[in-house]
Structure formats: C-alpha cells, structure tokens
Amino acid sequence: LWSLGGEPWPFHVASIAGFAVAVLLWHLCLARLGIGASGRWFGVALFALHPLRVETVAWASALRDVSSLALVLLALWLHLGKSRARWIGGLAFAAALLCKTTVFALAPVPLLVDLLWRRRPWRESLAAASVYLVVGVAGACVTWGAYRPVAEVNVRPGGGLIESLPILGAIQARYLRLQIWPADLAALPSP
User: pTM of the predicted model, to two decimals?
Assistant: First the structure.
C-alpha cells in the first residue's frame, strides 16, 4: 500500500474492504449456526454498527485489527463447516495471530460454540477445536515472551507468567466490557 505514494486513502479503502469481508463472514457464520434470516440480519447490523468496529474501520492505522477480525471469522466459518476445513481454519487463525497477537484469547471460541450452542459432546468438541487451542496457546506463549521485557519494566521485575495472569485477565475483562458498553471510546477525555 505504501507503493501508492504514502497517501492514507489506500489504507482506508483496504480497511473498508476488509471490514466488508468480515461482515459477510459474520453473516455466513450466523447462517451456519442455524440462526433465522431476521435474527441473522439483526446480528449483522449490530456487529457492523458497533462503535468498536466503526472505530477500527475509521482509523487507517488499525488495518491489522480489521485483518485479524476477518481471519478469525474465516476460521470460525471454516470450523462450523466440514471437518476437513478445520485445519485450514487453524491456518486462518494462525494468520490472524500474525496480524494481532491478542487474538490468542479467542482460541476457546470454537470449543465454546460447539459445547454451548451446537450441544456437541465434549470430547468431539475438544477434538474439533484442538487446532485452535494449540495455535492459541502457542500464540499466547510467543506474545508473553515478546511482552515480558515490557511487563517487567512496567509491572514487577522478575514477574513470571502466573504473576501476569491477573493483568491479562483485567485487559480481557475491559475489552469484554467495551463490547457490551463502549462508553469510554471518546477521542477526548470527559471534563
């Protein structure tokens, strides 16, 4: 994209196109889950207009977020399909991790969808989701190793993985809260 003169518009076009693909994949995932047409369209509208999604698309520098979102949804869509496609879904999930390292936290989603939504037996669900869990654990280890020097400076020198878990949990809890109530996404802080 930089070969187009360093202008921001190619990044915005790529971001909008990537988000359009993500919205389409979300629609396809909802269809594979057996959600009816009206519920599917409501879910797609809610997904597409959520402030976190809109904010991500608006920022040209957030192309990695849009890319990782589309790749995670591709992985989920493949997981919900034929069993042979799950390995390709694992590759899509690994590519999403290369775009944004925090994607590792989404590794249990296919397992949870199989257990809670599709009501599959736990052994079958675990076997089907194993590729995502293995890739997610590997991604978490690499992420922790990469950010450990930063954590030691900012948190506590010599802190290990166990000591970092409450911090990681707090970050994931904040992100989940923003999904439900995105009140503090303002560009300027409140007075």
Answer: 0.74
The secondary element (H helix, E strand) that includes residue 78 is helix 63-79
Contacts of 109 (CB under 8 A, 6+ apart): 76, 132
Q: What is the pLDDT of residues 97-136, one digit of tens each?
A: 888 887 887 888 888 888 888 888 888 888 888 888 888 8
Asked if 114 and 124 touch (Cβ cutoff 8 Å), the reply is yes
Nearest to residue 14, comparing CAs of 64, 74, 71, 89? 64
Q: How far apart are alpha carbons 99 and 65 in whole angstroms?
A: 7
In sequence order, which residues have a C-beta less than 8 Å from that of residue 137 and are 6 or more positions away?
104, 107
